[in-house]
Amino acid sequence: MREYFRNIYQTVTTIFIGMGITWKNMFRDPVTIQYPEVKVPLNERVRNRLYVNMDDCIGCDQCSRACPVSCIDIETVKSLPTEDLGKTSQGKKKLLWVTKFEIDFAKCCYCELCVFPCPTDCIYMTPVYEYSEYERNNLVYNFTTLSKEEAIEKVENFRKYEEGKAAAKNLLESKGE
Amino acid sequence: MTDFMNGYPMLYYLFLAIFPLLFVIPFALMAVYAERKVSAYMQNRIGPNRTGPLGLLQTTADILKLLQKEDMRPGHSDRFLTSASPIVVFLGSYLIYAALPFNSILTGATLDLGLLFLLSVSGIVVIGILVAGWSSDNKYSLLGALRSAAQIISYEIPSVMVVMILFVITQSLSLTEISEKQTANIFNWYILGGPDLTWKKFIFIPIMIISAVILFISTLAEVNRTPFDLPEAESELVAGFHTEFSGIKFALFFLAEYANMFAVSALIATVFFGGYQSPFGYLGDALNLSWLVPAEQFFWFTIKALGLVFVQMWLRWTLPRLRIDQLMSLCWKYLIPIALFLFVLVTFITMI
Q1: Looking at domain A50-147, which of 3.40.605.10, 1.20.1280.170, 3.90.1150.10, 3.30.70.3270 is its CATH number?
Q2: Do A22 and B317 count as a contact with CB atoms less than 8 A apart?
Q3: Within a domain: residue B12?
Q4: Residues B228-283: pLDDT tens digits?
Q5: Residues of chain B whose pLDDT is less than 50?
Q6: What is the average per-residue pLDDT within A65-89?
Q7: Rounded to whole angstroms, how far apart are CA atoms B305 and B308?
Q8: CB of B8 within 8 Å of any CB in chain A?
Q9: Is B60 inside any structural domain?
Q10: Residue A17's pLDDT is what?
Q11: C-alpha distance from A60 to closest chain B C-alpha (Å)
Q12: B42 touching A, CB under 8 A?
C-alpha cells in the first residue's frame, strides 16, 4: 500500500521535474546554424581546396612528387635565354615555362604534403570547401597562366632553339675537322 | 445572430454545421506548425522558418502537397473500407464539435446530455481506427489498431467516472448549463470548487484538481497522443493504423488527430475551467455593447482550449512512451480506483 502511494507521488513529481526542464529549454537560444547563410568559423590551419599562385611558381615539380595520390600534374619547358620570365616575390629568377599545372580535386586527399616542400610558398590551402560538381571532369582545376596555343608555342620555341644549337654544334665540329 | 437568422432557420443550421470546419482546418494547420515550433524550441532548435514569414505557411504547403498525391492503396486491402475509415475517424472527432459551446449563442446543439454525447461520440473513432488497421492488410497496422481499441476503451472508464463526479456536483450534464454556472469570476470555476459558496467548496477544490488531472490523462490517452501514442508508435509499428494511407486519406487522419486534440481540450476547459466564461467580468458588459460579449466568450473559450493543447504538446516533448502493461496498469490500478474513490467521496459530501 505504501508503495502504491509512493508510485503516485514519484510519478507526479518526476513529471513536473521533466516539464520544468523542457520549459527552461524552451527559452534558451537555439543552437542551430542556418548553414548557407551563416557558416561555422573555420579552424586555424584548416585544410580545404588548394590554390596555386602561378606568379610565384618556378615549376620545380616538388609538390607533384610529394603528392601521395599523384593528383598534381605538372609539365614544364625551359625558357630561351632571350626571354625574361621575371622574378618571384622572394626575388628568385624564374627559368621554366609551366605549360601544364593541373590539380585533380577528385583525387586530392587534403594531406597538405604538397604545401611544405614548395620553395616559393606558392601552393597553399584556401578556406573554400564548397565546390562540389555534377561532372567529375570539372574537378580538374587548371592553374597555368599560359593558354594552350602559347604552351605549344613555348615548346616549339624550345625545340627550335635546341635544334639550332645542335646544328651550330655540328657545324663547329665539322669545321674543326 | 439568432435574431438575425430567425427567418432563415436552414441558413442558421448550415452555418452551425460548417462553422466548426472553418475553425478546425485553420486550427489544425496552425497546431501542426505550433507543435513543430514548440518541439524545436524545447530541443534548442529553430523549427520551420523558410516557407512564408517565420515558416507559417509550412504546414499549408505540406497539406497542399499531400492533396496532390496519388491515392494509393495496398493491393489486397478492402477498397470500400480503406476509403471509409479516414472519414469515420474524422467524423468521430468532428461530431464532438456539434455539442461544444463556443460561446453563449454559437452552439451546434444545446443537448441536455451534452457531456455523455461527447464521450459516446468520441468512441466512434475506435471503429474508424479498427477498420483502418484491419482493412489495410498490414500486420503493423492491425497491431496498432488493436492497441488503439484496447487503449481507448479502457480510458473511457476513468473519463466517464470523472463526468459522474461532475454530474453529482453540478446536477447537470448539459455543457451550456455547466458553462453558465461558472460565470462572473474565476472562483466559480469547477476547478476551484464551483459556484456554491459553502464549506463544501473548499473540500471540492483538491477533489476537482485531482479529477481534472484524471480527465486530462484519460482524454490524452483517448486521442492517442504521446506518452500514450502506442497505436502509432513510430519506433515499433512504423506509423500504426495509418501506415498504409497516403495523400488525402492520411491528411484526414492528421486533421482528425488535431481536431480531437482541440475537442478534448475544449471539453476539459468547459467542465473545469469555466467554459466560455471570462475569468473576470466582460468588457462588453462594462461598455454596454451586447454584441461584444459573445466575441469575448469565443476568445476565452479558444484561449483556454489552446492552453490545454499547449500542455498536451509540452507533455509530448517531455515524456517517453509508456509500455502496454504500464498503460493498462496506469488505467486500471491508478486512475479508475482513484476516480471511484473520489466519486464515492463526492456523493457523501453532497448528501450531507
Answers
A1: 3.30.70.3270
A2: yes
A3: no
A4: 887 776 777 777 777 888 888 888 888 888 888 888 888 888 888 887 887 777 77
A5: 1
A6: 84
A7: 5
A8: no
A9: no
A10: 93
A11: 51
A12: yes
From B20, B24, B145, B25, select the one nearest B82 (Cα to Cα).
Answer: B145
Residue whose cell numbers read 495509418: B242
Residue A9 contacts B, CB cutoff 8 Å: no
B42-76: pLDDT as tens digits: 888 888 888 888 888 888 888 888 888 888 887 77
The residues that bridge with A87 in the sheet, in sequence order, are: A93
B305 within domain boundaries: yes
Site of grid cell 646544328: A167
For chain B, how many structural domains are there in total? 1
- Dihedral (Cα; A90, A94, A96, A97), 10-degree rounding: 90
User: pTM for the whole thing?
Assistant: 0.79
Q: What grid cell was written down for B148?
A: 488503439
**Using an 8 Å Cβ cutoff, are B140 and B237 in contact?**
yes
Name chain A contacts of B38, Cβ cutoff 8 Å.
26
Cβ–Cβ under 8 Å, residues B82 and B132: yes
In a domain, B162, yes or no: yes
Residue matched to cell numbers 547563410:
A37
- Range of the structural domain that residue B342 is part of: 74-351
In this predicted structure, what is the pLDDT of residue B2? 52
Contacts with B45 from chain A: Cβ below 8 Å: 30-32
Cell of A102: 593541373
Domain boundaries, chain A: 50-147
* Residues A142 and A84 sit within 8 Å (Cβ to Cβ): no
Interface test with B, best of A4, A9, A22 (most B CBs within 10 A): A22
